[in-house]
Design brief:
This protein is an alpha+beta fold. It has one domain: Aminopeptidase (3-Layer(aba) Sandwich), CATH 3.40.630. The chain contains four helices and seven strands. A seven-stranded mixed β-sheet has the order 1-2-3-4-5-7-6. β4, α3 and β5 form a beta-alpha-beta unit.
């Protein structure tokens, strides 16, 4: 992991970021989106976020994962933010997700947010849930049947938050 860094995304990262994002969308087990992004739609989507960052292998220059960070709400709840993480399926298990979440927590604070909240962590996403809990996120509760899986069955979603 010493050769992997997390850094702000650049324009030349968009193609790879879109590929990684679309892989998670296509899996249909974590993101609520059902439609994949074109590279141009990805460019617009990532530009619209408060912050995006990528995990890069410094030795090869390969983008291994990414996150997006944005407000969870507006006005009097504008200090709450939300994030999504995606790691190339071939690179999972290397603690890249942990690096991304830690970087995101720090970024959320730097961006002026007070709370990072996850609205829809699929209950069966055990690896993500264990990571969030190990990093200090608090489980608020579950919403029964809150996520429709790609195969059409419904799973509970868990809501988490951490003060940043």
């Amino acid at each position: 992991m010493k050769n992997i860094i997390v850094r702000d995304y650049r324009e030349d990262d968009v193609k790879r970021m879109t590929e990684i994002w679309n892989e998670v969308v296509e899996e249909g087990t974590a993101f609520p989106q059902e439609e994949k992004l074109s590279e141009e739609d990805g460019r617009k989507f990532f530009m619209a976020q408060t912050k995006c960052a990528v995990a890069e292998d410094r030795d090869t220059g390969e983008i291994l994962g990414m996150y997006i960070l944005h407000p969870n709400n507006v006005g009097r709840c504008g200090h709450l933010c939300n994030a999504s993480y995606a790691v190339d399926s071939r690179k999972r298990g290397l603690h890249i997700g942990e690096m991304l979440v830690k970087h995101c927590i720090s970024s959320a604070s730097e961006c002026g947010f007070k709370v990072l909240q996850f609205n829809a962590v699929v209950a069966g996403n055990i690896h993500a849930r264990h990571l969030y809990e190990r990093l200090g996120f608090n489980l608020l509760g579950t919403v029964p049947g809150g996520f429709r899986m790609k195969d059409g069955h419904y799973e509970d979603i868990c809501l988490y938050y951490i003060e940043v």
